Amino acid sequence: MKNAIIILLAIILFSPAISQEIKTHSVYFNTASFQPDAAAMRILDSVAAYCKKNNANVESLTGYCDSVGTTERNQVLSEKRADAVKSVLMQKGIQLNGIQKKGKGETLEFTGNDFHKNRRVDIVTNKPEEKKVSVLEEKIIKAEVGDLIRLDNISFIGGTPIPLPTSQPVMDELLQVMNDNPTLEISNEGHICCSQSDEENLSGQRAKAIYDFLLIKGVSAERMSYKGFGHTRPLTEERNAREQQMNRRVEIRVVKK
């Protein structure tokens, strides 16, 4: 139980944030107007093209006004500006379901020659990181059902089934492969070195640690299994530390693709 808690904490602490690119695009309006003029339409054309080219999503639309006119009138005008921008983007084929859209009324963020920039709508877009095929995924794509694939650079705290933080990139890579290939089914197979005895089933516990990581991250248990093989399938004669490390491993067997 103690090991399971430590493994869970390690998963939470070392899981990486999702990479993305957030940008703000500003569309400007004439005094007292909520209709985009020619310059505003060119910006909206550019935003729509950016979203389509980069598979970016519109996260929010926020309308603003300058301080000319009453507070109540400017609140309504800022909302109409946000509505107008939403309408144009939808006409250009941009999906805007569930976005945050609001008018914030007057703002004095800009003064002097930049006073006109207070009359605007800010469009916040989110561009996800481009997907790259990993080395592990390439191996799985080429593998046949029944093939074994070694998870390189998976290491554990000595004598325990707790993965070291340096193992996290490989575990994340395996998780991504499982998410990107929803029909893939695997068996995690653990091995130890340097001892003919595995009475505590350390090899099985280490295989289960990888299984538990994937399970916690949302991979269905029906797509995975785990098993320990102790020291019954060594790859080397363990004549040095490097050969010992090669035997102390976790592999995945492709069960179904």
Structural features:
7 helices, alpha/beta, 8 strands, four-stranded mixed beta sheet, 2 domains, 60s Ribosomal Protein L30, Chain: A, 37% helix, single chain, 257 residues
- Helix percent reads 25-40%
Largest beta sheet, briefly? 4 strands, mixed
What is the domain total for the residues? 2
Quote the CATH topology of the largest domain. 60s Ribosomal Protein L30, Chain: A
Mean pLDDT: 89
Q: Tally of extended strands?
A: 8
Q: Which regions have little confidence, pLDDT < 50, spanning 5+ residues?
A: 6-18
Radius of gyration: 27 Å
* CATH homologous superfamily assignment of the largest domain: OmpA-like domain
Q: Count of helical segments?
A: 7
Element order, helices and strands? HEHEHEEHEHEHEHE
Q: Which structural class best describes the helix and strand composition? A: alpha/beta
The CATH C-level name of the largest domain is Alpha Beta
Q: What is the straight-line distance between the termini?
A: 33 Å
The fraction of residues in strands falls at 15-25%
What order do the strands of the largest sheet run in, or round the barrel if closed? 1-4-2-3
CATH-derived architecture of the largest domain = 2-Layer Sandwich
Q: What shape does the CA trace take? A: elongated
Written overview of the protein:
It comes from bioreactor metagenome. Residues 16-129, 143-257 form the OmpA-like domain. One of its GO terms (cellular component) is cell outer membrane. By secondary structure, this protein is α/β, with parallel strands linked by helices. The protein has 2 domains: 2-17 and 132-256, 60s Ribosomal Protein L30, Chain: A, CATH 3.30.1330.60; 20-128, OmpA-like domain (60s Ribosomal Protein L30, Chain: A, 2-Layer Sandwich). Helices cover 37% and strands 21% of the residues. The chain has 7 helices and 8 strands. Residues 6-18 have low confidence and may be disordered.
